[in-house]
Amino acid sequence: MIPRVPPSANQDKIISVHGVKFVYNGGVQALAGIDIDIRRGDYLAIVGGNGSGKTTLAKNMNGLLRPTNGSVTINGVSTSEQTVAELAKVIGYAFQNPDHQLFCSSVVEEVRFGPLNLGYPEAEVAKKTEMSIEAMGLSSVKDQPPFSLTLGERRRVSIASVMAMDPQVFILDEPTTGLDARETDDLMEGVDRLNLDGRTVVLITHDMKLVAKHAKRVVVMSEGRIVLDSDPRGVFTDLELLLRSKLIPPPVAQLAHRLSSLGVPRDVISPEELVFHLMSGRGALE
Amino acid sequence: MTAFIDLYTESGTFLHRMDPRVKIVAVATLSLLALIMSHLVYLLVLTAVMVVLILLGRASFQKTMLAFSYVFRVMALIVVLWPIFNPGGTPVLFELGPIRITEPGIMAGIATAVRIFCLAASWYLLMFTTSQRDLVCGLVKMGLRFDFGLSLAMALRFLPTFSAIVESIKDAQRARGMELDKGNLRKRARDYVAVLVPTIITALKMADMLSLALQSRAYGARSDRTYVRELKMLAGDYVALSIAVAVFAIPATAKYIFSIPL
Predict the structure, then answer these.
(1) What is the rounded CA–CA span in Å between residue B137 and residue A206?
(2) How far apart are CA A37 and CA A15, in angstroms?
């Protein structure tokens, strides 16, 4: 856990956002000039308070929204030249509220809906469906109606239904809201595995503990701008900036800052690290 | 987070401060006025008055444009279609087979479009200067049963929420590769099910929670309920009321009693 691997070996850009501004009908400006490149294999967390533009940015990436100014390119092709359905082959997007997409009478059917829309042959649809249900740990409930499941399970169904479309990028909007610790772990285990398989993951969240534990790159948004883009360590060294962006740093980061006089570095992001620094004495590591 | 906006714009102009009952009466009289007038010039005068009132109410330009973008489309449609389907009078300007375009037809089309604008503008005036709470309060004070008033208030309150949810559901399914309005009938039907089922389930859940919230706040505990806010007519409100009534009563008298064409 302690020595972090560099973000990704493969550095080619999969999503490139350039100078994007977005204004909603009615004049609310949600994005005020965004530049960001997302590379293949990134495990990115977009964090920020409510209304900071996280979801708007994500929707600009899968074509549900088109930038008012600037451009978003996916694998080198502008989103303005592609339909949402075409983009869905590359960019999978699981919405915050799973109840906004579940409609079938069984989990299997629900998961099949996406790949069927994309026109995969039946054999492939069956295979992808099976694999996604397996990966999200839903095998035991696969014939049940999705609405009879718990929120944690419903959310995993919604992610499985995106997974079955076999996208290169997963955008997960607030995937852990309303889940207990156990459900969160179950879900995030599956998400981590996706990233290990080489998929790009974009988490949208304001849960900084989740970010510290899982993400490899963090983008902090505030008022429609990116105010910081770094690895998780970099983010937690500047607690002021997090608070200004309406985010609460994880307790371990706050504790590390309080203990900095004992020689604990300010970029601690896991309890194990904190223990390690305290045990190895004053600044021994550096 | 959604594109939908409430028409009500917070402000302190005299239109905002006016008693909602007066505004409701004024909308009724102004709408009736627009309906009894058919001469283009008079309708344009009424339009000008409406525009001045909207300006005095300090409506946001963008919101107004958004609200009227649908009205303008309907107006354009009327201007185009009216002369085709109502080819009365002379002179005939244009004739092609069964289609005959006459000058009175064109004028009537324009007048009707302007009338639609006046109707829409009078309702817009009410909606952007009156909060939904005041609106319902006004209706209840005018004799509407409280239950109906509350239902109306909730319907109005949840309309934008609901349209946002439907948009979100559509987006969620589009992100799964669904293309609404594409493909054969069977696929389209299935696609609509994909939007309809989550919508109904979300609505039922919402209604359930709402009824709990109402019960937990002792809704219906007593029939002789009191109100936190009492509406009180001020001198200015009476003046406004008289103007609103006169503005309709005088032309109506002129038209129907003295037979002056308007």
Answers:
(1) 39
(2) 6
Beta carbons of B69 and B55 less than 8 angstroms apart: no
Using a CB–CB cutoff of 8 Å, tell me whether B142 touches chain A.
no
Structural domain that includes position B6 = 1-130+232-262
Shortest alpha-carbon distance between residue A67 and chain B (Å): 14
Mean pLDDT of all residues in A248-270: 84
**pLDDT tens digit sequence for A200-221:** 999 999 888 889 889 999 999 9
Tens of pLDDT, residue by residue over A77-101, are 999 999 998 999 999 999 988 998 8
Tell me: do B189 and B96 sit in the same domain: no
Domains of chain A: 11-90+167-248 (3.40.50.300), 104-160 (no CATH), 250-286 (no CATH)
> Average pLDDT for residues B232-256, to the nearest whole number?
90
Beta strands in chain A (DSSP E): 13-23, 29-39, 43-47, 69-74, 77-78, 91-94, 169-173, 200-205, 217-222, 225-230
- pLDDT value, residue B101: 85
- Nearest 5°: the CA angle B192, B193, B198 is 110
* First-residue to last-residue Cα distance in chain B: 47
Q: Which residues 54-83 in chain B show a CB within 8 A of chain A? A: 60, 62-63, 66
B230 — phi, psi (to 5°)? -100, 135
Residue A236: pLDDT band with limits 50, 70, 90: confident
Query: What's phi and psi for A249, nearest 5 deg?
Result: -65, 150
Of the listed ranges B1-5, B63-67, B107-111, B243-247, the least confidently predicted one is: B1-5
Contacts of A258 (CB under 8 A, 6+ apart): none
Picking from B172, B178, B202, the nearest residue to A117 by CB comes out as B178
Look at residue B4 in the predicted model and tell me its pLDDT.
44
Average pLDDT of the residues in A153-158 = 92
Tell me which residue of A226, A191, A213 sits closest to A57, measured CA to CA: A226
